[in-house]
Amino acid sequence: MHYRASERHPKSDSLMEESSIELTTMKTREAASPPKVVVVGGTGHGKSSVINTVMGEDKCAVGVTWAVDKTITSEVQEVDFTGQDGRIIFIDTPSLKTLQSNARFQNLYKNGFQAIVIVYSIKAFTQSRPSVLELVNNLFGDGLKDYALVVLTFEDYLEDATLQEFLNTNKELKDFLQKTGVEAVTMCNTAEKNSPKATEQRDSFFSHLDVILKRNVSPLSKKTPKISVRRVLCIAGVVFTVVIVISIVIHFSV
Ligand SMILES: Nc1nc2c(ncn2[C@@H]2O[C@H](COP(=O)(O)OP(=O)(O)O)[C@@H](O)[C@H]2O)c(=O)[nH]1
Ligand SMILES: [Mg+2]
């Protein structure tokens, strides 16, 4: 099952051939609230442009903003998208550095989301510290492994180079992808929206996103079981130690 812009990808006969299990999954997802896909990355790396590209229409404001650390997108903004196979809420975000203290983002993280799209520019005009990947690691930690997809924007800047060649020049990104197992797709946001290239990019994006959405039945949130389990183990460890200490004290005092 793939999410595609409905107006550009009319339902094909092949959809009828999809298994009933797939259709059931789709209906279940339709009945539940639509998956939330949070789009993060450095200022000017093309976050808003990616949302426009995959939706096939300009819903988010984009701008030339790399000169200083400010962004056209100044708030967390939800964009409702209805593709051929259902709804998705894309969440456009401002600078990564401001997210940690952003009330809307905190609320979003508390309620949870189903996927993270990390937008990373091949042009890489901003080599600031902490880097985009460091900030993303700080925000999502272990969650990245199951929930993230990297979109490498400014594919046009690759020119004749291959993605592998680019990764060989970018150790931090290469290590990040290897360590987390997160997939990466390339994207040129300046491609004409009706062109075969744009269609190919959208299809590739949605097929990767769909794998993540199918994998993650429960949303990633600040209240994930992983954190709770860790807390429970921590409390159990403290209780166990206290019991042992009390037992030893009682043993030697009688
Ligand atoms: N050449 C090229 N320009 C891009 C690409 N993606 C975004 N841009 C341009 O980069 C600038 C910043 O994009 P924007 O989406 O506003 O970045 P954001 O701050 O991360 O949301 C805009 O002028 C876009 O037109 C791309 O793939 N190729
Ligand atoms: Mg933006």
Folded structure, characterized:
It is a single chain. The protein has ten helices and six strands. It has two domains: 13-222, 3-Layer(aba) Sandwich (Rossmann fold); 224-254. It is elongated. The chain has 254 residues and is α/β, with parallel strands linked by helices. A hairpin with a 2-residue loop joins strand 2 and strand 3 (86-92). Mean pLDDT is 83; it is low at 6-30 and 66-70. Residues 32-230 form the AIG1-type G domain. It comes from Magallana gigas. Keywords: GTP-binding, Membrane, Nucleotide-binding, Transmembrane, Transmembrane helix.
| CATH architecture name of the largest domain | 3-Layer(aba) Sandwich
Mean of residue pLDDT values = 83
Report the order of strands and helices.
HEHEEHHEHHEHHEHH
Work out the strand percent: 5-15%
SS-based class: alpha/beta
Task: Name the strands of the widest sheet in spatial order.
Answer: 2-3-1-4-5-6
- The DSSP helix count reads 10
CATH class of the largest domain equals: Alpha Beta
**Uncertain ranges:** 6-30, 66-70
In one word, what is the shape?
Answer: elongated
The count of domains is 2
CATH fold label of the largest domain = Rossmann fold
Please give the number of β-strands. Answer: 6
Bound compounds? guanosine-5'-diphosphate, magnesium ion
Backbone CA Rg: 22 Å
**What is the helical fraction, as a range of percent?**
40-55%
Major sheet size, sense and barrel closure = 6 strands, mixed
What name goes with the CATH superfamily of the largest domain? P-loop containing nucleotide triphosphate hydrolases
N- and C-termini, Cα separation: 70 Å
